[in-house]
Design a protein that fits this description.
It is built from six helices and six strands. By secondary structure, the protein is α+β, with helices and mostly antiparallel strands. A six-stranded antiparallel β-sheet has the order 1-2-3-4-5-6, covered by helices on one side. The two termini are 13 Å apart.
Length: 210
């Protein structure tokens, strides 16, 4: 029996861990095509614009930066998908379980954050310290405005580390002044944990309460 912020809960039984169908080629298809497309645009289009004339050449720098930005973001997206195909999926198959989406999202955010800082330095010639300082101010403002959301995020990380329950576990939650809620855990996301009852009703509980 585990004490929860909204009452008590107990794991009843662990359900079957059926692995959903997964097509690696389909997951990598679009990111690869878009990445190759931006490579072609970045290497060919600006040079052709210079050949057209001075008027078009004036936009060459802007267009080149736009293509470089798209190329960097496409590469980050491709990296996220490659990690999903070559790291997350083999781990899921080996452990016969489902990795929570929260951990995948954190890894994806870190990749895009690194890509954004790199693009700011390489494409726009912005010092990295200035980028970090600006992002720090933005993070402070967002932290004040999203306290509950941030609490849900870190509680979700704690749930994934401690793993009092996992995906496909059947749990029973006892909220105060409400009948017990029994369901199968389907997802542990950024903000909440979702479980599906036997009548297909979805129960959503904020992570900070769990």
């Amino acid at each position: 029996m585990v004490q929860l912020g909204i009452g008590t809960a107990s794991i009843i039984v662990r359900g079957p861990k059926g692995m959903s169908k997964f097509n690696p080629l389909k997951r990598l298809c679009w990111p690869t095509l878009i990445f190759v497309l931006f490579i072609v645009l970045f290497t060919m289009v600006p040079s052709h614009l210079i050949d057209i004339g001075e008027t078009a050449a004036g936009f060459t720098d802007v267009i080149s930066k736009a293509f470089a930005l798209g190329l960097g973001l496409a590469f980050a997206w491709l990296c996220v998908r490659m990690i999903e195909v070559f790291i997350w999926r083999p781990v899921e198959v080996r452990l016969k379980t489902t990795i929570p989406r929260l951990l995948k999202d954190i890894a994806a955010v870190m990749i895009f954050l690194i890509a954004g800082i790199t693009l700011a330095k390489v494409v726009f010639n912005q010092p990295v310290t200035a980028v970090w300082a600006t992002s720090g101010v933005i993070a402070f403002v967002l932290g004040l405005a999203l306290q509950n959301t941030i609490a849900d995020l870190f509680c979700g990380i704690a749930l994934n580390v401690d793993q009092p329950f996992k995906i496909n576990d059947w749990i029973e939650i006892h909220p105060r002044s409400v009948d017990p809620l029994r369901g199968c855990v389907t997802e542990i996301s950024w903000r909440s944990t979702r479980s599906r009852k036997t009548n297909n009703t979805m129960v959503v509980v904020p992570n900070r309460l769990l």
